[in-house]
Design brief:
By secondary structure, the protein is an all-alpha fold. The chain contains 18 helices and no strands. The chain folds into three domains: 191 residues, MFS general substrate transporter like domains (Growth Hormone, Chain: A, Up-down Bundle); 49 residues; 207 residues, Up-down Bundle (Growth Hormone, Chain: A), CATH 1.20.1250.20.
């Protein structure tokens, strides 16, 4: 048996590079949508599948992570993730049709769905407790900085070269991460200690896919047929999951957990929604190049990333009410400002409103997850984390589909494509604002309760 030392820092770096690349592409592609619509002759509701299919695959793979960790070695999972990712990036780097582009995105979603849990599993199982907090912070920073860089990265490359360079420039990065991972992660014997409920996994996939198709085709019979299929899948998943749990649904019996989970998911919906609306609006309505649209998103995304670790320290010192409460107020103010200024097309006002919203996100987004998981018994926190991670990706996909269909409907119904885009963008922001207000009020109601586990 190989006794090679497990190089933890390098292993985290290798898996972190893949996770970073996955999240980077997710936001980088949003600024390319107008270009893709023109190049492939597709609609707004179709182009959103570039993001949706990626998030759908992550939401399907993440619930399987517990089974994968128990039955396959870290090295095996790393190799699988690397192969999926390199294959997906190569496919998209030379995609000659929209269908081929989606195939590449699907492969990348599988890769990221493996890499993200693997990175944190390595930290939790290999890093000493006294250094674990710092390493988890580095891991979270990896996935929070990438969304800030994505729109700028994608916008500059799309304007300077073409959108395929978003993928071409990642090929050497992935090769380097693969080499580092193969060096750092040793061969380890892994006994298969668990079986997977394949029926539950299949039904969960059917449920997610059906619901996503519903949100993508609200205006057609296909959407309602998909909804029926999704609901049947959900019913069958619930029954099968009780026989052998793929996801522990008992966590939903805790009201505090559920309220903060919903708040977390609403933030995810808003983040993915605004990253779709703003770059597309500014390019189509204001005729701004993709590079400037990407730069417009950078200050807000960077602000959110920088506030996230600070908000955790505030929570540790002052409790959860102040950072979350103030964060909700900033988020509401910023989003309301976006609704009022978006149709002016003024990039400065839009950027400032986005920054205000992202201050709120930075103060409260990660903290609502912390409070939600702290509200349940420690023995259930792994299960709660799996629920958070799974639904986070799924609701991000739902948000992109929902916003795209609203904008698309107004584009079709208006004789002026730019005017339709403008009106549809504002209506989409208003719809999401209602969700923010409802979830914010629900969180404020919990401030008088004492259900948080210490």
């Amino acid at each position: 048996m190989e006794t090679k030392k497990f190089h933890v820092n390098l292993a985290v770096l290798a898996t972190g590079m893949m996770a970073f690349a996955g999240v980077l592409i997710e936001t980088a592609m949003n600024v390319t949508f107008p270009t893709l619509i023109e190049q492939f002759g597709i609609t707004t509701s179709q182009v959103q599948w570039v993001t949706t299919i990626y998030l759908l695959m992550i939401s399907i793979v993440v619930p399987l992570s517990s089974y994968l960790m128990k039955n396959y070695s870290k090295r095996q999972l790393f190799i699988a993730s690397s192969l999926f990712f390199v294959a997906g990036v190569l496919v998209d780097a030379f995609a000659f049709s929209f269908t081929v582009l989606l195939v590449g995105r699907l492969l990348q979603g599988v890769a990221t769905g493996i890499a993200l849990p693997l990175m944190f599993n390595i930290i939790l199982t290999k890093v000493p407790i006294k250094k674990r907090g710092m390493m988890i912070g580095i891991g979270n920073l990896t996935t929070s900085i990438a969304p800030a860089m994505g729109p700028t990265y994608g916008g500059i490359l799309t304007t300077t070269y073409d959108w395929t360079y978003i993928y071409k420039l990642l090929i050497p990065v992935l090769i380097v991460s693969t080499v580092i991972g193969l060096y750092a992660i040793p061969k380890e014997e892994q006994q298969k200690t668990d079986t997977i409920n394949m029926k539950a996994a299949l039904y969960l996939s059917v449920m997610f896919t059906g619901l996503l198709f519903f949100f993508s085709h609200l205006e057609s019979p296909i959407g309602w047929i998909s909804l029926a299929i999704g609901l049947v899948g959900g019913f069958l998943f619930y029954g099968s999951n009780k026989q052998k749990e793929l996801l522990n649904l008992s966590v939903f019996s805790n009201k505090m957990f559920t309220v903060y989970l919903i708040s977390f998911l609403v933030y995810q919906i808003l983040l993915l929604g605004v990253s779709f609306v703003l770059p597309n609006f500014i390019q189509i309505v204001s005729d701004v190049p993709a590079s400037r649209a990407g730069v417009m998103m950078f200050p807000g995304a960077l602000t959110g990333a920088l506030f996230a670790p600070i908000s955790g320290k505030i929570l540790d010192k002052l409790g959860f009410k102040k950072p979350i409460g103030i964060g909700i107020l900033f988020a509401v103010a910023g989003w309301l400002s976006l609704i009022f200024v978006i149709q002016t097309g003024n990039m400065t006002l839009i950027t400032m409103s986005h920054v205000i919203f992202m201050i709120g996100v930075g103060l409260s987004y990660s903290n609502v997850m912390t409070v939600g998981l702290s509200a349940i018994d420690k023995s259930l926190q792994d299960d709660g984390n799996a629920v958070f991670s799974t639904l986070q990706q799924f609701m991000g996909a739902v948000s992109t589909s929902f916003v795209a269909i609203i904008v698309g409907l107004f584009q079709k119904s208006s004789s002026d494509y730019q005017q339709g885009t403008s009106t549809g963008s504002k209506v989409a922001l208003i719809c999401l604002f209602v969700l923010l207000v409802i979830s914010g009020l629900s969180v404020f109601k919990t401030f008088t309760k004492k259900e948080i586990q210490q």
